[in-house]
Amino acid sequence: MKLRSPIITLLTGAVLAIGLWIASLNAATSATTAYGKPATPTPTTAPTVPAATASPSPAVTPSPSSAAASPTPSETGSGGFVIPDHANYVGPVQAGGGAIAITLHDKIAIAYYCNGKTIEEWMKGVPAHGHLVLTGKNGAHAEVNYALGHARGQVHVDGFSYTFSVIAVHKPSGLYQSIAVVRGATVKAGWIVLADGTEVGSIELDPNAAAPKAQAAPQLDTTSLTADDGGVTLHATPIDGETGSGF
Amino acid sequence: MAAQFGTPDPQATRRDPIYQPPDNIAKILVIPALVGCVVALTIGLYGKLHHATGIAVNIAGFSSPGSVKAWLATVAAVLALVQIGSALVMYGKVPRVSAPSWIGGLHKWSGRIAFIATVPVAVHCVYALGFASYSTRVLIHSILGCLFFGAFTVKMLVLPKRGVPGWVLPVLGAVVFAALILIWFTSAYWFFSTFGIKR
Questions:
Q1: Probe site for chain A from B83, B109, B127, B180 (most A CB atoms < 10 A)
Q2: Could you tell me which of A188, A52, A198 has the C-alpha nearest to residue A120?
Q3: Of B123, B134, B155, which is closest to A24 when you measure between CB atoms?
Q4: Which of B4, B126, B143, B150 has the CA that lies 20 to 30 A from B172?
Q5: Nearest chain A CA: its distance from B128 CA (Å)
Q6: Distance from B32 to chain A by nearest Cα, in Å?
């Protein structure tokens, strides 16, 4: 039986879908392998790093600029973007779901998602040349693509996914954390100060619990780095990728 | 396709000159319907169970995967309007317009191009973002995305069959069209109105 044209249409679509799916598998693998092996930069995506750390072998032909630049603060990613080693990104997530802060300093990235109320999550990850996967408690995770000036991606917290596209900021905007013992209990607070000065903060009253309960954090004074939690002064530390504070 | 409707199927007429028993119609439609269900469920379940990566292949020349998808979806939506228009002409539903000879070709090719345009969008959706429900818009979009490919599969599988009742293809076409337009409103329209019309 000869194939009818509608069947050919369907098969063409299916073949295209499978082709793109396989291509996507390959596209995503570089990010996940880099995350799985944090200490080893993937040589394919980062031509400058092996040139700087390993002895140059005849097989590798580094470009003069990458060979000359040993510990440069940034590298150029595959898409022509400049990939910073130190950066702070903050901004709201879409759909009014709160805010996210992503800070990276060399080989460590810290992200904090918070809706200013009951939901907040600290996440950690390893920057890999413009890609970043961060994980936290209770299956919270985020995938981020970042470059000089901006970062975008998705954060998955408490069963919800939020897309974000956020910008790089400098102090006093950024991420702040406070861990203290208050009235015999450990409290862990986080504040995201957005580019316009708006604060979004949550406080965990028992951060070591399996499912910590959070509530709105008291107002943080970014000059004195203190917040007044019902008469107890919380001292906050900036988590600043640019200076390395808090890392 | 126009010819298929214009001329009665000789085989079916020989078997059943007047009356087409319902179980015969069911026999014709059950396999395409089941395959369509499998397609929709496969997309939905993969999208739900697969760990969304946030990353998929990108198309050069656009500022972000989002804008590529928005434009491809817009192409598909415009072609879907061509689909509805050409279908109405083929069925003689447009007053004072008789179907020109090329209308069948226009319908087929606008449909094929529209379908092919949706595939990269859907792969990115399912692979990078997954079946999500964090807002009404996203939930409606996820459900209709699965429905669209299921309904389209059913329509393609029913098209070459003989003895299909006259209402089946218009209904399937309407479902595919409505799903695609709602998908466009919950994605590309949202994208353009949120981020501006940009490449």
A1: B127
A2: A188
A3: B123
A4: B126
A5: 8
A6: 11
CB atoms closer than 10 angstroms to residue B195 = 14
Q: Check residue B57 and give its pLDDT.
A: 64
Hey, is the C-beta of A29 within 8 angstroms of any chain B C-beta? no
Distance between CA atoms of residues A156 and A73, nearest Å: 30
Closest residue in B to A5 (Cα–Cα): B160
More confident residue, A209 or B80: B80
Q: Domain residues for B100?
A: 20-195
In terms of residue numbers, what domain contains A171? Answer: 75-247
pLDDT in tens, A47-101: 333 333 333 344 433 444 333 333 334 455 445 567 888 899 999 898 777 899 9
Residue B9 domain-assigned? no
Number of folded domains in chain A? 2
AA letter at A59: A
B112 and A145 within 8 Å at the Cβ level: the answer is no
Verify that A81 and A173 share a domain, yes or no: yes
Q: Do B128 and A160 touch (CB under 8 A)?
A: no
Mean residue pLDDT of chain A comes to 75
Domains held by chain B: number: 1
Query: Alpha-carbon distance A40 to B14, whole Å?
Result: 73
Tell me, yes or no, whether A217 lies in a domain: yes
Reported ipTM: the value is 0.79
Mean pLDDT to the nearest integer, B162-186: 93
